[in-house]
Amino acid sequence: MDELLKLISIKKYFPVRRSLKEIFAKNSQAYIRAVDDVSLTLKQGKALVIAGESGSGKSTLARIVLRAINPDSGSIVFNQEEVTKYSGKELKTFRTDVQMIHQDPYTSLDPRMRVLDIVMEPLNIHAKDKTKREKIEEAYKSIEEVRLEPVADVAEKFPSMLSGGQRQRVSIARSLVLKPKLIVADEPVSMLDVSVRAEILQLMNNLKNRLGLSYLYITHDLSTARYIGDEIGIMYSGKIIEDGSIEQVLLNPLHPYTQALLDAISEPDAKNLEKEKIIRIKNIEKKDRPETGCRFIHRCLYSMDICKSDPQKGGEEENHYVSCFIYPS
Ligand SMILES: Nc1ncnc2c1ncn2[C@@H]1O[C@H](COP(=O)(O)OP(=O)(O)OP(=O)(O)O)[C@@H](O)[C@H]1O
Ligand SMILES: [Mg+2]
Q1: Is the CB of 60 under 6 A from ligand 1?
Q2: d(CA 2, CA 215)
Q3: Which fold has domain 3-251?
Q4: Exposed, middle or buried by CB within 10 Å (0-12, 13-18, 19+), for 280?
Q5: How far is the centre of ligand 2, averaged over its atoms, from the C-alpha of 6 (Å)?
Q6: Structure letter (DSSP) for residue 255
Q7: What's the gap between Cα 159 and its chain centre?
Q8: What's the 211 CA to ligand 1 centre distance in angstroms?
Q9: pLDDT level of residue 275 (50, 70, 90 thresholds)
């Protein structure tokens, strides 16, 4: 099957802001290794989930894929083309192929614009040669696609007249209007009521199957990941520490961090709620995270001396990889 997106050794380090005192003392510049040598592949028509805790680098990776920020090194291959250095016209075309769904449907839609204008906006920017009539027709089609009905009524409404779930549908309609190949969704359901989350995920799944879309789906929540994902990469401190088919990774988690993440998922079986949950992880201060070797070393219950050096990708199953010294590389 065709590869749509290939990330090869992507790095993005942010300089830590220093006080004047530190600058005068000539303290060396420290960096936050937000994305630290990440390689991943997303196949055409599939959904790749990136999961990990807050600050692990998920949004930074998403912004790199969107070409909103440049990586320090590494390369982004999209549709068999190297797009890392794209600029001008090429970048503009790339930006029609890759669209974004934001986390917060309350702040991501302009409250002064009607739904029709919100959904039509990308066409006004990227499809200047189309007539107004054509643009309206395409926007209507997009609104229909996300099951907002009756279309003509919804099109005239302002965001404030819609529920959170409906707003997120508008956001999805806007992302579809340019017929993209890839949609990057950064926590698209985390701000929504639990009751509407499943419905939005179901819509995203239907669109994926019907339109052959691919998703890069970012979340800290493994329970929603399973709804949508085909593949998953678990991110910790800028690194992908485990990746592979979502079934294999979630049913047979190998990395101690993935195991701890799964431990932390809320218990679906009510009779087990009383039991104290054992989460296999040590609590540490954020500043104790190492910059070399296994980033998880201080929180891991199984850490060994060798973990001070960098673990290589290994594992024992096909399409399931882990970077941990417990497993052969
Ligand atoms: N523009 C920036 N300048 C400096 N540091 C940044 C910048 N953007 C992100 N960071 C840092 O990079 C790290 C990764 O941030 P990022 O937003 O990618 O994490 P995340 O996994 O999306 O977290 P969350 O789940 O909270 O959204 C964090 O330590 C963050 O403080
Ligand atoms: Mg984020």
Answers
A1: yes
A2: 14
A3: Rossmann fold (3.40.50)
A4: middle
A5: 21
A6: S
A7: 25
A8: 32
A9: low
pLDDT in tens, 5-51: 999 999 999 998 888 887 788 778 889 999 999 999 999 999 999 99
Residue with the two structure tokens 């493994």: 222
Question: Is ligand 1 within 6 A of the CB of residue 56?
Answer: yes
> Which of the 8 DSSP states describes residue 37?
E
Distance 33 CA to ligand 1 centre (A): 9
Question: Of 13-22, 175-184, 213-222, 232-241, which gets the smallest average pLDDT?
Answer: 13-22
Contact present, 98 and 66 (Cβ < 8 Å): yes
Where do you find CATH 3.40.50.300 in the chain?
3-251
pLDDT single digits (tens) 92-135: 999 999 999 999 888 899 999 999 999 999 999 999 899 999 99
- Three-state secondary-structure class, residue 8: strand
The token pair at 15 is 């300089």
Nearest ligand for residue 53 CA: 1
Question: What distance in Å separates the CA atoms of residue 223 and residue 214, rounded to the nearest whole number?
Answer: 20
32 lines ligand 1 (CB under 6 A): yes
Ligand 1: does its nearest atom lie under 6 Å from the Cβ of 57? Answer: yes
Phi-psi region of 34 (alpha: psi -120 to 50; beta: other; left: phi over 0): alpha
Question: Residue 53 CA: which ligand 1 atom is closest?
Answer: 25
